[in-house]
Amino acid sequence: MSKATLIDTTKCIGCRSCQVTCKQWKDLPAEKTQLQPGRKGIQNPTTLSAKTLTVLTYGEIEDAKAPGGLRYVFAKRQCMHCEEPACAAACPVTALHKTKEGPVTYDDSKCIGCRYCVWACPFGIPTAEWDSLAPKIRKCDMCHDRLSPAAPDARNGAALTDEERKRFAAAHSVPACVKQCPAGALTYGDREELLREARARIAASPGKYVDHIYGEKEVGGTNMLYLSAVPFSELGFRTDLQTEPLPRRSAVALGAVPPAVIGVGAALGGVYALSKRKAEVAKEEEHHPEFAPVPAKKVWTPANVVLAALMAFGGLSFLARFALGLGGSTNLSDTYAWGLWIVFDLVWIAVAAGAFATAGLIYVCQRKDLYSIGRSAVLMGLLSYSFVTVTLLADLGLPWHFYQLGLQAPHHSAMFEVSWCVGLYVTVLAFEFFPIPVEKLGLKRALEAWKRWSPWYVVFAVSLFVYLMSRSVAYTAAAAAVFAVLAVAFRTKPGEKPVPILLAVAAVTLSTMHQSSLGSLFLLMPDKLDPAWWSPVMPVYFFLSSVAAGLGLVVLVELWIAKVFERKVRVAQLAALGKIAFWALLVYEAFRVGDLAVRGQLGHALSRPLFLAEVGLGGVVALALLATDGLRRKPAALGLGAALATGGIVLNRVSVVVLGMTLRGSAPQDAPARYFPSVVEWGVSIGLIAATIFLFGMAVRTLPVLPKEEAEQH
Q1: pLDDT (0 to 100) of residue 72
Q2: Which listed residue, of 100, 176, 265, 311, carries a Cα 20 to 30 Å from 157's Cα?
């Protein structure tokens, strides 16, 4: 039976002994505070922090029968120790863990400092050490170290009897705050027994208590239970929380990942086999242009000088991040534990989806007319995802603990899934791009090794991913079998031109998983994210939107290449890609609007200007510009349509992370901080964008990434 604490606010006298004792037992430092007259009374500090794990709140309640017409109600606030905690479900390295005894504990030796727990918690409990160069998370652990103390063998030279040892344990195996409370407001014991005790108190004094035990059912139940004489909303408690545990939805979504990997891989293999057979029967001529570096008239153009300056600024900002610490270099806080860098990552991953989308179209669906676009799309994807990992390195509070991602086995953590899936996808992109520099250098042996071993690397990578997500031998064996069959069936035969079909299948499969799981990150936050953007099917609409955004960016990149390098616009290929982008965007927008209508939130969404801009400009107008072949063949119209489509999905991601959020800050959640990115945050982000553009330009000048202009004339 799990342990819990019953907090009877009618007995609390506001002495703050619980608050002081918590500080003493946990050896926490003092912090500079300031009284907030007229709003908080003598409450001090006003919120939880890394230095204060327990706060006593002061509430002034109007009561004509009380002296002066006011009644003072005090409430101890600390971690609620949920029965199914969102913080533990969020943690990718099991640093936060729900014990069988009831407390949710924290192990800083595992923590990577992602701060996902800070946003996942509906009560605003976890806080970060923002003034530390190695910021850890801090929260009440119900004095877990006190709950099973070892009784001394002797006292005053006399051995203790078994009965005395039991009495010692009963007297000391309680949280420090409970032990210290002089008014009997805190009772510690088995959760079910305390619930019975609470109901008995309500029944015995019906006029004394409101008929509600706070914590009995909120978010599935908590191990901190409250009784009150006044409505809990008047004490600042959240009364809008659902009764279903928050991790339930994300558990369902992430539990579907292992079978989805197997199913998507098998389906893609089947699509390739059918499309290949159809192409062979029709004897279609394959479109294989010759690739070559772009002749460089001048490398250090004014634009490249500006990019180099921005890269240098980004490098200095990156160094400043670690020299000053996360708190000293950013404007993040316990309210905005995530900021510009997370927005940056979600946006970049979405728009970089063109790499997997084009790989799937060219190789799986046999759209060889788009072959000339494939190399530039893969290069953009490789650079984008590589720099996403750099941003994550800056954003993590304890990045040197990254190895814990390989040692721990969390249950249904979206962050864990995204971390591994993105990491493995980067390696797949590297394998896809590998033949390009090899071709330039003329390394035939390396190319032969790539032909032989890249399919088997895919088998290994996918099998490893499925095992890490499921810890199931059966699922792992099934994944290995399916992808091994594909590797054998689609192997390159002697004399054939190598087709990296298994790399393309892996790219689409892994991208499907992590693009959707980025949406799963926010399934834990229905209490914070506006219903115009939060949905139980967020994983689906995140994936669908990424396809449209990725194809839109590929179109924009190709138009940019033609402009910067004075090349012909490949109208036929870009118009064909624009048509596919149209259908991808139409499916996404229809799904998005349909979901809102089914949930009864469409009217609410239409009242939000951000939603209107996202769906109006990024949806309706973009679809109109991409709808007809005549408009798609006009570079200006195609470019505007692609820009609006991509921009609409960028706005969606920004809204999900920041603009659509209602953040209340640390408990008691009535003093949220504001946020605007610091110079360092902007510097790192802009520097990485500049590096991507600069390196892309250098790559096309030195490697056979783009087709020769002559190929376009045939």
Answers
A1: 85
A2: 176
Residue showing tokens 């203790």 = 160
* Closest alpha carbon to 113 in 385, 358, 326: 326
- Written as six digits, the tokens of 670 are 């009535």
Do 518 and 347 meet the contact criterion of CB atoms below 8 Å apart?
no
| DSSP assignment letter at 225 | E
Looking at domain 3-235, its CATH architecture is: 2-Layer Sandwich (3.30)
Q: What is the tens place of the pLDDT at every residue in 330-348?
A: 999 999 999 999 999 999 9
Band of pLDDT at residue 288, cut at 50, 70 and 90: low
Answer whether 468's CB lies under 8 Å from 439's CB.
no
- Residue 688: which of 415, 392, 298, 428 has the closest Cα? 392
In the predicted structure, residue 713 carries a pLDDT above the cut 80: no
β-pair type (3-8, 224-227): parallel
Residue with tokens 């619930």: 195
Helix 679-702 and helix 340-351, axial crossing angle in degrees, nearest 10: 30
Alpha helix segments (H runs only) across 13-147? 17-26, 86-90, 116-120
Q: What is the mean pLDDT of the chain?
A: 91
Structure tokens at 341: 């860098």
* Cα 312 from chain centroid (whole Å): 29
Helical segments of 247-367, H only: 247-255, 257-282, 302-329, 340-351, 354-359
Q: Please give the residue that has the higher pLDDT: either 35 or 434.
A: 434
Residue 598 has pLDDT above 60, yes or no: yes
pLDDT band at 152 (very low <50, low <70, confident <90, very high): low
- Give the tokens for residue 93: 């390295």
d(C-alpha 154, C-alpha 159), whole Å: 4
What does the domain layout of the chain look like in residue ranges? Answer: 3-235, 525-660
User: What's 496's DSSP letter?
Assistant: S
* Cα 455 from Cα 459, distance rounded (Å): 7
Amino acid letter, residue 215: G
